Amino acid sequence: MLIELNKELKKSIELLREIGKEYLRPLGIEADRSSQAIPVDHPFYNLVAQTGFMARGIGSTFESGNSEKSTNGRSNNGNSVRNVLMAEEGSYWDRGTLVSLPGPGLGGPPVMQMGTSQQRERFMSIFKQRDKPLWAAFAMTEPEAGSDVAKINTRAIKSEKGWILNGEKMFSSNSSRAEWVVVFATIDPNLGRRGHRAFVVEKGTPGFDISRIEQKMGIKAYETASFKLADCVVDFDNLLGGESYYSSTSKSGFEGAMSTFNATRPIVAAMGVGIARAAYDIAKEFVLNEVPKNSSLRLRRYREKLQVMQAKLTHAKLLCLRAAWLLDCNKPNGFEASMAKLYAPPASLSVVTEASNIVGLENKDKSIYLQKLARDVKAIDIVEGTQQIQRRVVARNIIVN
Ligand SMILES: Cc1cc2nc3c(=O)[nH]c(=O)nc-3n(C[C@H](O)[C@H](O)[C@H](O)COP(=O)(O)OP(=O)(O)OC[C@H]3O[C@@H](n4cnc5c(N)ncnc54)[C@H](O)[C@@H]3O)c2cc1C
Fold this sequence. Notes:
By secondary structure, the protein is an alpha+beta fold. It has a domain at 253-398: Up-down Bundle (Butyryl-CoA Dehydrogenase, subunit A, domain 3). 51% of the residues lie in helices and 13% in strands. A 4-stranded antiparallel beta sheet has the order 2-3-7-6, with no helix packed on it. The structure holds flavin-adenine dinucleotide (FAD).
């Protein structure tokens, strides 16, 4: 695997670094202090929209500007490595603010992966406009279906008026401010995975009601919400991929969701690496500048710790890049995506913990910020499938019955 960053990507990362320093981190710290998400009308979001970033996607996981699918029907368009690198850099500055940014977010991948060309154009092109910030979201998780997505119970019934959706979704990030949400539902729970369908539910559709904003331990800059669907009628055209997508024996809504995860897991894993790199830099700066030079034993111990932390970060990042690179090559990457998501979150958590151990309480500001990073990094282990679930996927690939 040879990854060379082209000029455009280098420029994007540099720009993100500047935005990160000036906006992402200060806004994330303020959200953490106040325990409030960044408000929808914050001027920074207008700036993001005006600069065209909603379509280019600094926070989004898929570039929305290009609605063409690649020849084999997959839609990564060579962007997966870019998305991993941008996610890592953005999360270095603040993962909460990064996820809060306007754009298609986690709603983008299923539209790009499963949608028809008309649907991709219809739902993604809104992010090309620059006059106001817009969001989209993804909703799979339900009160009784988190890790085991096959158990989703939101019902979709076809009627003359369209598809009628009934059910409850939870932990859907940015759905409280989204123009549309991709909702996974089942036409018949007895069909298991084969019954899954993905619908785009648009803002203001009667019967679609946000019921709760979650109180999170960290990553406070964005809202994660629960919502109810009560006789919510969506157009036939809002069934992602159309009926033909699901009638093919090789495809189902479940498989669509899984291939979405293969794209998003390396990105989420890279976010953990970004958070942990921020902690590593704080610890390194502390060791270089604040530990007395005559404490040779202490310095040696810290240097060894920093070396182990650095190795973990490098290892985790390479796993993310490998999974993304395979996707960019249109090769299967489910195993590698799960491997990255299995390794990076606990490795990132351990780096943040070790940074806290090094700094201790000797530098109050650094210590307070490290506490925030420890709260932020925990969620990385949960979203897009927990460590235990990734272990199952990896094990299944190693031991084939
Ligand atoms: C901040 C945040 C943002 C999120 N954003 C979104 C979003 O935008 N859209 C969305 O749809 N969802 C979202 N989620 C939900 C997330 O995907 C789920 O929380 C996750 O899939 C775990 O599901 P659960 O919380 O129901 O835990 P459970 O599935 O109840 O799991 C509880 C524990 O049991 C373990 N476990 C479960 N099953 C097994 C098994 N078979 N073998 C071994 N261990 C097992 C799990 O690993 C976990 O440790 C978000 C969650 C968080 C925290």
